Amino acid sequence: MTTAVPKVPAWLGLNVAALTASLAHVFVDTHLGLFGASSPIMSALQAGNILLICLVMACWSLSLATAQSGTRPGLSGAFTLAIGWALLGNGTAFVAAPPPSPAFPYQDITHFSSLIFGGLAAYTTSRELKQPGVAISWRFIGMAVVLMLASFILQAMLAQSNG
Questions:
Q1: 121-133 pLDDT, tens per residue?
Q2: Interior/surface letters 134-148, b for 16+ CB within 10 angstroms, e for the rest
Q3: Would you kindly state where each structural domain of the chain is located, as residue ranges?
């Protein structure tokens, strides 16, 4: 007896790829010290940054799980995070650190993979959002926007305090 393996929808697979690329980008930036030097003592800003990044990833995961469950409101949050976090927040970071970046090739790979997967995830998710019976969820969009803005502001504060 063979078991059929369920097919993963393109929007879901590309969102997971964008989330993964974005997380790799955060790891590389942290390793480079963009959010402060690594030490046994962590500042309140560094701890807040970790918390907000975890909340962004949790929001994206919740959006994907909800969207895949059949009720579909999470598509709105996934679309917002694919554009705001992966594509614009991490993907276009190569403007600030043009290739070759200080951590070549790792930083460049994470920038471009966030740009590519974020763009593809946004495109495929937008196509899924246009399907009949799929409603936009302002709750998921609002949650994603608030978390992204808070994280970007905190990261700017960290960059300014390190520079």
A1: 999 999 999 999 8
A2: eeebeebbebbeebb
A3: 18-35+42-162
User: What residues contact residue 83 under an 8 Å CB cut-off, 6+ apart?
Assistant: 118, 122
Give the sign of the dihedral formed by CA 33, CA 106, CA 99, CA 90: negative
Is residue 163 pLDDT above 70, yes or no?
no
Give the chain's mean pLDDT: 92
Q: Please tell me what DSSP assigns to residue 2.
A: -
Instruction: Find the largest Cα–Cα distance for the chain.
Output: 62
CB 78 within 8 A of CB 61: no
Q: What's the DSSP call for residue 103?
A: T
DSSP 100: S
Write the pLDDT tens digit of every residue in 70-86.
878 999 999 999 999 99
Q: Do 44 and 133 contact (CB within 8 A), yes or no?
A: no
Average pLDDT for residues 40-47, to the nearest whole number? 92
Q: Is 49 exposed, middle or buried (0-12, 13-18, 19+ CB in 10 A)?
A: buried
